[in-house]
Amino acid sequence: MGRKQSTEQGPKRKVEVARYPFHRRPPWILSPLFAVQHLLVQAALIQTVHCLLIDALPSDQATRQHGYQFMATSLFASGISTLLQTSLGCRLPLMQAPSFEYLIPAAILASSPMKTNNSHHNGTQMAMPCEGALCPETDAFLQTWKHTLREIRGAVLVSGLLQVFLGLAGLQGLTSRHCGPMVLAPLLSIIGLSCYKEAAHFSSSHWGVTALLIFLVVILSQHLRSCYIPIWSWKKSKGFDLLTYFPLFRIFSLLLPVTVLWILCGVLPEGDLLSPYSGGGHRGILRSNGTRLVPWFNIPKPGEWGAPSITIQSTCIGIVMALGTSISSLGCYVMCSKVMGCLHPPRDSCNRGICLEGVGSCIATLLGGIASTSSSIPNVGALALTQAESRHSVQIAAVLCILVGMSAKLTYFLTTIPASIHGGVLSVTNTMAVSVGVSYFQYTNIDSGRNIFIIGFTMFMALLTPHWFIRNTDYIVTGVRSLDIFLLALLMMPVIQGGFLAFVLDNTVSGTSEERGLVAHFPGFQSGLEGHHRHPPKDLTDVYQLPSALHKYLCIKFFPFCNLCPSSEPVQEPMAEGEETRDLLPTPEFVASGGEIGVANTPRIVLVSAGIEA
After folding, report:
1. How far is it, in rounded angstroms, from Cα 360 to Cα 366?
2. Rounded to an integer, what distance in angstroms lies between the CA atom of residue 212 and that of residue 280?
3. CB-based burial label for 476 (10 Å; 0-12, 13-18, 19+)
4. Residue 40: CA atoms inside 13 Å, Cβ hemisphere, count?
5. Which of 401, 392, 435, 429 is nearest to 93 (CA)?
6. Global pTM?
7. What span, in angstroms and rounded, lies between the C-alpha atoms of 287 and 271?
8. How far apart are CA 189 and CA 307, in angstroms?
9. What confidence tens digit (pLDDT) does each residue in 384-438 have?
10. How far is it, in rounded angstroms, from Cα 185 to Cα 433?
11. How many angstroms separate the CA atoms of 518 and 84, rounded?
12. Cα separation of 116 and 109, whole Å?
């Protein structure tokens, strides 16, 4: 009763502090803390991707130390890409970082040249790891290592160029129009489930630390979500005055556990039973002895690591990277809009988003990075847990990434976060993608035999097929090596297979509009707002609009830039219940009405007490 009464005394104040929406700037003292929280989640993704990729390469202590510079470059490029995305792209508060959809094709390409590396030598000299702390630049091992990395960078460059093409051609937005609930639900679930192996791999370094982190996050974000800290002010005329209540535990449900456990692990001596660090005098995630090759200050420059190598193999892998990251980014856009409770991104926003993600990948490659940039699913999961959705905080985090990326020493300091903490962060944040995906089933007829088959078949095959091909990499032998690695990478990507199967089955298997969720209760339709708001709040409809100062200069009406310009198309009205349809293509009557599928006013995922939400 006391909690309810306190909620009713100041609902307006509590709405402001319980959630920081994208359009509102938090207090100056909170914005840097939100930015650090985003940085820690992003660092978990960047470090795990780079660590797994470098582990896939034959490397020694000297080459592994270069990994910290690659991480710094990735942070630098991710900060630039985040600023572009939040300012000119889809405009959602999305952090940019390398994704696991990039990792599988890159690892396949990394292992491919090592089978035929005799072409770089005279037939008698073999590429063997050098001994000692440092290897000379002329060593055959280091030359082969750099050649492989240049080929990976070439694949990332091809991937970025293809993403730019997808945005300019309008294909990303066109695809988003045909994604109903029966496509989005299994897609988001597969995106969240597809990285469980990587999360388990890093958690296994110390399951106790991971379990403690997950326990603290659950307690702070769920059990203590309605526990508020009173904020007082003092004036000489009035004395102490209660300003508002601050949801400290929920807002910082990731920052507090990560920071506390990081400090606790640093205090414990190496080799201790409770310490996640193994002995050896090194605490970086790459397990390199010493950091003599890690500079304090180094702005990434084009050509520092040579030009990317674009070969037939890297081109094939780049195509797979582009497909995987584009599908994942589309799911990330929808997930973020669902968490924020705003409209699904329109076509132009999706096109701008994927186009600028491609630009970010090209920038990362040209600066010497070995990883692409795409929208970060873990950071969206952090938004859902903390509900601190301010775009301003994400932009501060982007600037912080750029500053940290200028110093490989600072990046090395971030890598001292134990791998078990990274595993816990990835575990709790990716579960939110699964949760958002499952929430889309409410709009469909889940008892329909059609839907039961599509859901079960899509999710099972998307996890089964990659699992089998990972263990049978030599099964595909066509006689053409480039075609072999292309098919292998394609079949080892759960996101590509899940998205493709869900899209094809939902658009080809006949079913009524009620079965597919294309009726009034699906939030993608205007009439779905009846009983709530006939028109969505202004601050939610403006989320995708370009800055007013740039709108008139960036809206170019001729092809292909017209696909990036905002349009004023109305939202599609729902089809009559019981009407059978096989695809999401608009009917002639619908085209004449100027409607558009795929725009949704999505109910917000409520993780706070009902008394706070307006």
Report:
1. 10
2. 25
3. middle
4. 28
5. 392
6. 0.83
7. 15
8. 38
9. 998 888 888 999 999 999 999 888 788 888 888 888 999 999 999 999 999 999 9
10. 10
11. 34
12. 12
